[in-house]
From TrEMBL:
InterPro entries in UniProt: Gfo/Idh/MocA-like_OxRdtase_N, Gfo/Idh/MocA_Oxidoreductases, GFO_IDH_MocA-like_dom, NAD(P)-bd_dom_sf
GO molecular function: nucleotide binding
Keyword NAD: yes
Pfam families, alphabetized: GFO_IDH_MocA, GFO_IDH_MocA_C3
Record keywords, A-Z: NAD
Record-given protein name: Dehydrogenase
Record carries keyword Ribosomal protein: no
Residue ranges of domain Gfo/Idh/MocA-like oxidoreductase N-terminal in the record: 5-118
Residue span, GFO/IDH/MocA-like oxidoreductase domain: 127-236
Species this chain originates from: Cellulomonas persica
Transmembrane segments: none
Length: 328
């Protein structure tokens, strides 16, 4: 069987990583790249650098990875859909809900494979966590808490921290629990003099009753990527920077020390850090999308998933602007 012919539009910081993975992927050949701003990182590696998505389509590609700024996602994605080309679009799917809806509809109506690059889903710690939750290892899930903090990335200029970073947490929370958001209440802050928010705190509720909390900012001098899922039997802590997953079990040993025994909550039990394989998340994402294009049953972040995430992100911003809880 001939290799799939892949194209890449957007040759910036993220685009260069997509190119690296695409070139190493079995069953795929990177045949065309494009960026109207040129190729500052030398991604092309001998390929002609096109200036538009039409140049990729003319090269006869089977699918395209879209790694351009969010504001251009709708135009490029719909052009690809109209040409019958499958697409993996970097997150967020689009800058707003109507735009995301149009993109999702364009691919669905033509029977094309469309996916969104919410790469955290492919982090080994979260993939393992998802499997353990599905197996019932935690029992009932009570709460999901995420913290995604770090310094400001100068390359991000078209969206704020909600649509750039918090969309990771929105998507992964709904995915690991398999339950969508139904409401959010949020506060944002603008401290760096930009037009978009650089800090957000969100409290949410999922359809199954799970309570969520998300702290996201571009203002911390350290980098943190942590997801804590608390439930009936204890808590899982996933660190996606190191791809480590740790389980803190509720204690089962009776407490005879009277002053401690008066505490009516749970007590500390065993702590286990799991030894898990740690493949690169971006490679796992591309492998899944390749297989989806080939018609295999795989777990990708669908455009409907991406649309739902944009809708929640907009509810977060609306809540912060109005000071009210927003239904999703």
């Amino acid at each position: 069987m001939a290799d799939l012919r892949a194209g890449l539009i957007g040759l910036g910081m993220m685009g260069r990583h997509h190119a690296r993975v695409l070139r190493s992927l079995p069953g795929v050949q990177l045949v065309a790249v494009a960026d109207p701003a040129g190729d500052p990182h030398g991604v092309a590696n001998g390929l002609p650098v096109g200036s538009s998505v039409e140049d990729l389509i003319a090269a006869g590609v089977d699918y395209v990875t879209v790694a351009v700024p969010t504001t251009f996602h709708e135009q490029i994605a719909i052009t690809l859909a109209e040409a019958g080309v499958h697409a993996l679009v970097e997150k967020p799917l689009a800058p707003d809900t109507p735009s995301a809806q149009r993109v999702a509809d364009a691919f669905a109506s033509r029977g094309l494979v469309g996916a969104v690059g919410h790469i955290e889903r492919y982090n080994p710690a979260l993939q393992n966590l998802r499997e353990r939750l599905a197996a019932g290892d935690l029992g009932d899930v009570y709460q999901v808490v995420t913290r995604r903090q770090g310094p400001f990335p100068a390359r991000i200029a078209d969206v704020g921290v909600v649509k750039d970073l918090a969309t990771h947490d929105i998507d992964l929370t709904a995915w690991v629990t398999q339950s969508p958001f139904v409401s959010v209440a949020a506060q944002t802050s603008l401290q760096s003099g930009r037009q978009h928010e650089d800090m957000v705190a969100v409290v949410g509720k999922l359809a199954d009753g799970t309570v969520t909390s998300h702290l996201v900012n571009w203002l911390s001098p350290f980098k943190e990527r942590v997801t804590v899922v608390t439930g009936e039997r204890g808590a899982f802590v996933a660190d996606t920077l190191t791809a480590d997953l740790t389980f803190y079990a509720n204690g089962t040993v009776p407490t005879t020390w009277e002053s401690i025994a008066k505490f009516r909550g749970v007590s500390e039990g065993d702590v286990v850090r799991f030894a898990i394989p740690k493949p690169e998340p971006l490679r796992t994402e591309h492998e899944a999308f390749r297989d989806a294009v080939l018609g295999k049953e795989v777990d990708i972040v669908t455009m409907q998933d991406g649309l739902a995430t944009v809708r929640v992100a907009e509810a977060v911003l609306a809540s912060a602007a109005s000071g009210t809880t927003q239904l999703v």
